[in-house]
Amino acid sequence: MRFIILFLLLTSGYANAHQFTPTYPELEMSHIAGVLKAEMVLFNTRKDIRYYELNVFDEDWNPVRFAIESRVVPMEYQETKNITVYISKKELDKARYICSKSKILLTVREPSIVSSRICSKLK
Amino acid sequence: MKMKKLLLIPALAVTASTAGADIPITGFIESKCVIQSDTPGRFGNPTVDKLSTKAADGGVMPIVRYDIITASKYKAVITTPTNFSAAPSLSDTVDWTSTTIAGQMSDAEMSVFNTNKAIYNNGHTTEFDLVKAGSVWFNVTSEAEYGVGKSFPSGNYTALIVAECIAK
Question: Measured between CB atoms, does A88 come within 8 Å of chain B?
Answer without folding.
Answer: no
